[in-house]
Each structure stands twice: as structure tokens, then as C-alpha cells.
Description:
- It is a single chain.
- The chain contains 17 helices and 3 strands.
- It is mainly alpha-helical.
- It has a 3-stranded antiparallel sheet with strand order 1-2-3.
- S-citryldethia Coenzyme A binds next to loops.
Amino acid sequence: ETGMFTYDPGFTSTASCESQITYIDGDKGTLLYRGYPIDQLADHSNFIEVCYLLMKGNLPSKDELETFDWTIRRHSMLHDQFDQFFRGFRRDAHPMAIMVGTVGALSAFYHDSTDVNDPAARTIASHRMIAKMPTIAARAFKYAVGQPFISPRNDMDYAANFLRMCFAVPAEDYESNAVLAKAMDKIFILHADHEQNASTSTVRLAGSSGANPFACIAAGIASLWGPAHGGANEAALNMLNEIGSVDKIPEYVRKAKDKSDPFRLMGFGHRVYKNYDPRAKVMRDTCHEVLDVLGVRNDPTLQVAMELERIALEDPYFVEKKLYPNIDFYSGITLKAMGFPTEMFTVLFALARTVGWIAQWSEMIEDPTQKIGRPRQLFTGATPRDYLDLSKR
Ligand code: SDX
């Protein structure tokens, strides 16, 4: 049987599904959501509209957008008892661990939307997850810093409301900053979907068995956590902190090029983009806007980031291998400037990617040709042999 299957480690040349959601041309640096270029969406749309687009396939009319927006706002609260889940974690728990646990636990709260064969239940589950993810993410943050949870406010936009739930403190006025809220919204748009990446493939594989959508999204969060994937924004910032000062950069660039050294420049390179990551372009501009509005250009970590970017873009090794700073390099710097601790970076990625996971999961469930995911293997183990009694071994 061994010779019957194609060996494709890392699935570099295997399409696992047909999809109409996101198109990437890695050589040209193109990324389209349902046909719309990512830069146009980042500049002119907003995250809620992009959610509608990804889920339903077309941009909404004014009425459709209003209804969808209201529906998402209406679902933003968490059941009061849900707070017990957060309080069960150690204070120093990684917020991604909290996300995996609590999002999976939604399955235990919303029994009415776990039937994957019921289209209405699937829709409600989708709305619930998009709506509740900021509330869950903000609670993970508040729990870590030891501050009281802040409830969602349905009169605020998605991104502004999320920032308020993270940074407002009871009994103190909270002024939302329009530039930061816009930047947050853009970060969400840029991370919303990216076709069959590791976490999305995980969601599809989990969902292919008929598992409930909350459990599938929890699986996606687990996969996203790794430093080669969504954990790269956190890893990139940790790396910048480790480098520490501009004069140490050449040493780290040398390490990254050394094949016998496992060190890699985090936030550089991409499986599909071998030209540039179109999201990184937008993210870089947003990053600079945020640094300017906050007046933090002199922050040492950020200076290391800017200098590393300059050096790596000129170094022949990185140029020849077409290794560019990816979206997570710039999003990490932006989020740090906005006041998020590094442990929260991947949580924000998960928050934004939830709609992509949901759109891809729904597409799979509605696709009559999809079957349970069940890869085969090239067996390289022992040939048949007879059991040997313990006394004879
Ligand atoms: C995301 O898939 C998606 O779409 C993911 C994502 C999404 O939106 O869902 O875009 C989000 O995950 C972004 C990627 C974030 N990861 C990082 O920033 C971590 C650092 N990057 C690398 O680990 C790596 O570049 C990957 C994982 C992103 C891509 O890995 P590949 O496609 O398997 O490429 P590779 O590891 O085979 O690298 C090719 C060559 C190798 O050298 P050679 O063996 O050919 O000589 O480039 C070298 C690598 O050693 N290389 C690097 C490098 N990345 C690749 N060398 C130094 N520093 C690096 N960062």
C-alpha cells in the first residue's frame, strides 16, 4: 500500500478543498477577499462589513449592513456564569490558553446552536462567536492584569468597544482614540482570512467530522498559537526585546543565516508570499500612523524593529530567499505601541481570524463533495513480526 499515496509534507502542493472565499497569488503579492483587494478593504471598508463579505460572499446593502451590525452587537454579552471559567485560571496563565479553554467551553453554554445540520443554528453560532470573541479576549487581558471585567457597550463600534473593554477602568472616564480604533479595525480586517493556512485547515479538519462549531474554532485557536503561525507576532516582539539594541542586530542576522543555528528572524518569511505580503504593506503604514499619534518613536524596541527591517531588506541572504517582513512583524510593533502586552498579540489575531474560520467552516459544511478529512501515510515502520514472550527479549 506504501506506494499508493503522494507524499506532500506540509501540504505544499495539495489542495484540500475548493473555496470561493479568499484568493492569494503569492508571486504577485495579491490577496483578495471574495474578489476585493485587501488594500481597498483596509482603506475603505470596516471589519463588520468585511465579516459580512467573507460570510455571505458579497458586500452588504445599507439595510443588510445595519441588520448584520445590530445582530453582532446584540450577541456581544457573555453569560454571567461564564466568568467562572476565567477565574479558574492562574493569573499568569497565557491568554491563548484561556482562549482555547473558554471558546471551547461556549459549546457547553449554547446548546441551541451546536447542531451543524441546522442552517439556522449554524448562523446563530457564527454570529455568537464573532460577537463574543472581543468580550472573551478582553476578559483574558483584564484577568491577567488583575482589573475588573468591563462589559461590552452595544452603542460602540466593534474595534472601539474592544479597546474600551481592554483599557477602560471602572469609575474613570475612558476616551476612545479614533486613530487607534481605526488601526485596530484595520488589524482585524488584515487578519480576517487567509485561505487554507494551518489554523483554518485545522478548523476544517475538526469540522469535517461534524464537531460543533465552538469546538472547531477552539481547535483553530490551538493551531494558531504556534510561533511559526499566529504566535509569530508575539515571537517577533520577544525577539526584538532579546536583541535589545541596534548594535546587536548584525549578530542576530548572522545567527538567522546560519543553518546550524535554529534561530530564525521571527516575523520574516511566508509559505505562500515569495514576493511580499500585501497585508504587511498596509500594516506598515498603519504602524507608522500609530507610532506618530502615540509619539513613541523613541521606544528602544521599536528602534530595533525599524533598523532590523532596513538591514534585512538589504541583506543578500534575505533578498535571494525572498524573505520579507510579514504582517506579524508590523502588527506586533503596532500592538505593543497601543499598550497590549506581547502575550495578547496572538489573541488579537485569533479574534480577527474567527470570521475567516467560520466562513471556511460554513463553506465546508455546505459543500456536498466534502468528506471527513482523513489523510493517508507512507508507512516506514516495522514489517510484520511475531510477538515475543517477555522471557525471550
Ligand atoms: C502566519 O500560511 C498562512 O497563510 C499564515 C498566515 C495567515 O494569515 O494565516 O499568513 C499567518 O503564520 C505568518 C507567518 C508567521 N511566521 C513567522 O514569521 C515565523 C518565521 N518564519 C518562518 O518560520 C517561515 O518563513 C515560515 C514558517 C513563515 C514559512 O516556512 P516555509 O514555507 O516552510 O519556508 P521554509 O522554512 O522552508 O524557508 C525557506 C528558506 C529556508 O532556507 P533554505 O533551507 O532554503 O536554505 O528560507 C529560510 C529557511 O531556512 N528562512 C528563514 C526564515 N524563514 C525562512 N531564514 C531566516 N529567518 C527566517 N524567518
